[in-house]
Amino acid sequence: MRIGVISDTHGDTRGWRAAVEGPFAGAGLILHAGDLLYHGPRNPLTAAYGPPELAELINHAPAPVVIARGNCDSEVDQLVLDFPVQAPYALIVIEGLRIMVTHGTEFGLEDPVPGMASLAERYSLDVLVSGHTHVALLERAGGALLVNPGSPSLPKSHAGKPQPTVGIIEDDVARIVTLEGRVLMESPLARRRRGRG
Question: Are the CB atoms for 69 and 87 separated by under 8 Å?
């Protein structure tokens, strides 16, 4: 199954549309790591800022959407969304993969990897998806693959020019891609061996 991975849309319709029409084409599931509709007090308004329109686009997504609540998401957002905004974690087991989605606020902005790795180990995850930093990340830690798809709307970068990005999980490989589909990072998935319990 092709799984689209996105985070930090912050009310921007252009990034969502580009992801759904491009890299997410044919996806059977979309994972959203939060900060869906509101831009937040630290972020600028984008030219395509339209929270009500984005809510409708998400409601009519071409695949089911699993959403973890971000620090800019509020209870009132659920009133306009047909998919539940789960807080603060969503655990999905699909095709033998244990995937957790969380926004990642608790991991901080500077070096989220240690906190992510600890959570992935605690829950024996194959993949941990987070957002919050707006910086794409694809890194193996212990037995898990840590994935931050960056942001299709308000990208940031620790080195180089920020690019709007999303993630794709397919055929036991995770990729961070531009909205045009150009692969920026790629890693095989880490499937943990589990005994019967």
Answer: yes
C-alpha–C-alpha distance, residues 31 and 65, integer Å: 6
- Give the list of residues 6+ apart from residue 15 with CB closer than 8 angstroms, or none: 9, 46, 48, 151, 152, 153, 164, 179
Query: Which domains are present in the chain?
Result: 3-188 (3.60.21.10)
Hey, which bits of the chain come out as E strands?
3-6, 29-32, 65-68, 85-86, 89-94, 97-102, 127-129, 137-141, 144-148, 165-170, 173-178, 183-188
End-to-end CA distance of the chain: 26
The answer to whether 88 and 103 have CB atoms below 8 angstroms apart is: yes
Token digits of residue 171: 């055929």
Walking along the chain (197 residues) 10 residues at a time, the average pLDDT comes out as 97 98 98 96 93 98 98 95 94 95 88 88 95 95 92 88 95 96 93 60
What backbone phi and psi angles, to 5 degrees, belong to 89?
A: -130, 150
Q: If DSSP codes are grouped into helix, strand and coil, which group holds residue 53?
A: helix
Chain centre distance of CA 26: 17
Beta bridge partners of 170: 173
Reference 60, options 95, 34, 30; nearest CA is 30
